[in-house]
Amino acid sequence: MARRAQTAAAVLGALSVAPMTGYELRRNITEVLGHFWHESFGQLYPCLTELLDESLVRAQPGDRTGSHRYRITAAGRRRLAELLAEPPTRQPPRDGLLLRVFFGRSLSPASVAEILDAEEASVRAALARYADIRAEVTTEDEYAAHRPYWLATLRAGELGAAARLAWIEETRAALDLPATLTPP
Amino acid sequence: MARRAQTAAAVLGALSVAPMTGYELRRNITEVLGHFWHESFGQLYPCLTELLDESLVRAQPGDRTGSHRYRITAAGRRRLAELLAEPPTRQPPRDGLLLRVFFGRSLSPASVAEILDAEEASVRAALARYADIRAEVTTEDEYAAHRPYWLATLRAGELGAAARLAWIEETRAALDLPATLTPP
DNA sequence: GGGCACATGTAAGCTGTTACATGATTAA
DNA sequence: TTAATCATGTAACAGCTTACATGTGCCC
């Protein structure tokens, strides 16, 4: 599945949940899918134009002058199901943190410790975001039918974050680095 | 840290472990760093040329006609340490698996189950590769000084894979999907 | 001699990022 | 009236992927 196709899948998927403008699409992709997905927004409007040409979405006048509210069509729903059923395109890994640890012998222990501290902070920040999302998803009733799926992706984030925290602790021990204070 | 800079870091890092030809660099990046790193090989030779221009690596004649064995210089080691000390560039997330699960309501349960099965297979394959790498790293004595760092990156892969397997099981249960037989 | 692994490179095409341009509406 | 948010786009640039081109050395 080409990268372009996955952009179309994300857009059609969002519109399958609710009709919205390009701007709302952008915001929703950032805020709702943000913890596992990123769209290049320079591609978003061109993608919508393509989907319109193929009659996979329809545009109706929006609330404001010149704004469009996009709505998925029946053909769009069929295409979405096809796209999602294709095997995912994996993006090649490029983990800057592990690159730094792998060549850690070229760094001072203090530098390695700093890198791990920064990672810990970023993982904890992610966990905090997950807690917010969880609160929202569990209280929101409008999209109850989607809830088990949305909770599943959230859970993937939570388990991944927990695994990385465990790894950080283990790695500090293995490399004889000082453990930082765990926030209360 | 720009993407280019991380390519330079990977190349300098590899050469900091042992001098090698461009071809060996390519192979080592694929085989040794492969579980967390990917280089675009169209960029590798241009990158080596740049590093030569900056005197961060030297080329000496290799074993064959026209081949070069690249060796990192003292300036190259200093640059490597600088590059590794910079905060990693995170690549924006684009997890096709989670995209599919998030919009799982647009799929049949059978399709979702298939997607999870495929993911499980791929995670188990990764675990098998990690086992091979672990055997190699622990028996190889030549690079003993690097061992704790290399084992740390390996451990990150192992813990991540375990977390994903746990997530798959949990998700099957949460979505009422059949559990597949676990291989012996 | 043929096939394979070694070895170095390039160029076309595709894709994404970034910054900018434009303007309407609303809240302070 | 000013700033922020809503809303739609585009164009230049940067970067990567893929496939190809070329040739050597070794083993059967």
Short description:
2 copies of one chain form a homodimer. The first copy, chain A, has 184 residues and is mainly alpha-helical. Helices cover 61% and strands 5% of the residues of chain A.
Could you outline the blueprint of secondary structure elements for this entry?
The structure is a homodimer of 184-residue chains.
Chain A: H1 3-17, H2 22-31, H3 44-53, E1 57-61, E2 68-72, H4 74-85, H5 96-102, H6 109-139, H7 147-174
Antiparallel strand pairs in A: 1-2
Helix pairs in contact in A: 1-3, 1-4, 6-7
The structure holds a DNA duplex (28 and 28 nucleotides).
Can you characterise this structure?
The structure is a homodimer of 184-residue chains. The first copy, chain A, is mainly α and 184 residues long. In chain A, 61% of the residues lie in helices and 5% in strands. Chain A is built from seven helices and two strands, in the order H-H-H-E-E-H-H-H-H. The first copy, chain A, has a two-stranded antiparallel sheet. In chain A, helix 1 (3-17) packs across helix 3, helix 1 (3-17) crosses helix 4 and helix 6 packs antiparallel against helix 7. The longest helix of chain A has 31 residues, at 109-139. The model of chain A has no long low-confidence stretch (mean pLDDT 93). Chains A and B meet through helix 1, helix 4, helix 5, helix 6 and helix 7 of A and helix 1, helix 4, helix 5, helix 6 and helix 7 of B. The structure holds a DNA duplex (28 and 28 nucleotides).
